[in-house]
Amino acid sequence: GEQVLSRDVYRIGQLFDFFRMMSFYFTTVGYYFSTMLTVLTVYAFLYGKTYLALSGVGEILQDRARIMQNTALSACLNTQFLIQIGIFTAIPMILGFILEQGFFRAIVSFITMQLQLCSVFFTFSLGTRTHYFGRTILHGGAKYHATGRGFVVR
Q1: Which whole-number Å values give the CA distances from 60 to 1, 65, 91, 101, in the listed order?
Q2: Which residues constitute the signal peptide according to the record (predicted)?
Q3: Which one in 7, 23, 41, 152 has a CA-CA gap of 20 to 30 Å to 100?
């Protein structure tokens, strides 16, 4: 998190060509920033859907979409696409497993991972990383933690 606030990352980024800069960004500060944006977007979406459901505005919009035959608005108000997004994000992982292990073993390992609730673990892991990244950006957090072993110079 502290790397985002430092000038060193900015200076290094100026010296790279475009592809090295993108590689550097997404392997250091960009990963955490993208993670934070993902989590904040999910929060905004869920708060919006909660507001639409509890205030009754969602039903009014659905009725207007039905009356005006606005299929785009109806499609936006339905949340079934969230399941599709989850499935589509799992496809690259499944294809990687198929290349490494073969089709049958890949499907078995994917189902095993789902039964072990790995997706729940990774969701909470993503949220935890985002929390501490945001806290470091807002309040700072880089400090030296002594291990008690001292320095060994030979």
Answers
A1: 43, 9, 36, 50
A2: none
A3: 23
Delimit the domains of the chain by residue range: 2-139
Q: Which two tokens stand for residue 83?
A: 């399941």
Contact 141, 1 (CB under 8 A): yes
Helix (H, G, I), strand (E, B) or coil at 80: coil
pTM surpassing 0.70? no
- Sign, CA dihedral 45-50-51-57, equals positive
For residue 109, give the nearest of 98, 125, 123 by alpha carbon.
Answer: 98
Q: With 0-12 CB in 10 A as exposed, 13-18 as middle and 19+ as buried, what is 51? A: exposed
Question: Each residue of 27-53: pLDDT tens digit?
Answer: 777 788 888 888 888 888 888 888 887
- How crowded is residue 126: how many other Cβ atoms within 10 Å of its Cβ? 15
Pairs from 16-22 (Cβ < 8 Å, separation ≥ 24): none
pLDDT for 100-124, tens place per residue?
999 999 989 989 988 998 878 888 8
